[in-house]
Amino acid sequence: MERDDNHFYQYMLNELGTSGSRDGPRARFKGRIPPKRIKKTIVNYVNSFVKCSQCSAPDTVYMKQDRVTLLKCQACGATRPVKL
Question: What is the pTM of this model?
Fold first, then answer.
C-alpha cells in the first residue's frame, strides 16, 4: 500500500474500537475480533486512503497543498482531499 504504518495502525485501532500493540510489522489487537470485521476495516481503509475515487487505481500519492492534504492519482491525475 505504501502508506505510513502508524496511520494504518491507528486507523485500525479506532475503527475496531480496541487497544493493541505493535511488534515490528506485526500488530496485536486485544479482544476477540471476527476476521470479517478486520477484513471490512482494511477494505474501508483502502477505499478511503489508497484507491482513486475516479478510476479505482491504487497508484496514488499524498500531496500537501496549502493546509489541505490531497490524494493524487498517478494513473488518471484526479485529486481529492483526504483527512489524515
Answer: 0.89
